[in-house]
Amino acid sequence: MQKTLFHYRAKVVSVYDGDTCRVDIDLGLGTWVHNESIRLHRINAPEMRGAEKVQGKLSRDYLRGLIDGEEIVLQTVLDKKGKYGRYLGEIWLEMDGEYKCVNDMMVENGFAVYKEY
Questions:
Q1: Which residues, at least 6 apart from 73, have a Cβ–Cβ distance to it below 8 Å?
Q2: Against a cut of 0.90, is the pTM above it?
Q3: Which end of the chain has fewer CB atoms at under 10 Å, N or C?
């Protein structure tokens, strides 16, 4: 079964950890959804507590440096929320005239790992 993907313009309003952020989403025609929680799809970053705390903060800070306050393209998976009430999404950021997948950048730079869920 193929997954249904939707694309939206959005602005990142905060970054919680290396795989979770909040965004304002432009639905079009002047309609916005504000402060929506997004879980980066396909990846898992270290936790902000416990044994992974140091790596978790590094991961969060890297993601913040990439996207906090930035306008992005949000690609959601199925347009429904996961088990923790967050939409699953891929974040695309324009860099040097082309769009790059932030989810993949997190893994490529050692701040997350790929994960199926």
A1: 7, 8, 9, 10, 91, 92, 93, 94, 99
A2: yes
A3: N
Query: Encoding tokens for residue 59?
Result: 């991961």
- What is the number of domains present in the chain? 1
**CATH no. for residue 21?**
2.40.50.90
pLDDT at residue 104 above 80? yes
Give dist(CA 80, CA 53) in Å, integer.
Answer: 30
The whole-number pLDDT of residue 83 equals: 79
Rounded Cα distance between 38 and 40, Å, is 6
- Please determine, for residue 52, whether its predicted confidence score (pLDDT) is greater than 60: yes
Q: Is the dihedral of CA 93, 110, 54, 50 positive or negative?
A: positive
Strands 31-40, 20-28: pairing kind:
antiparallel
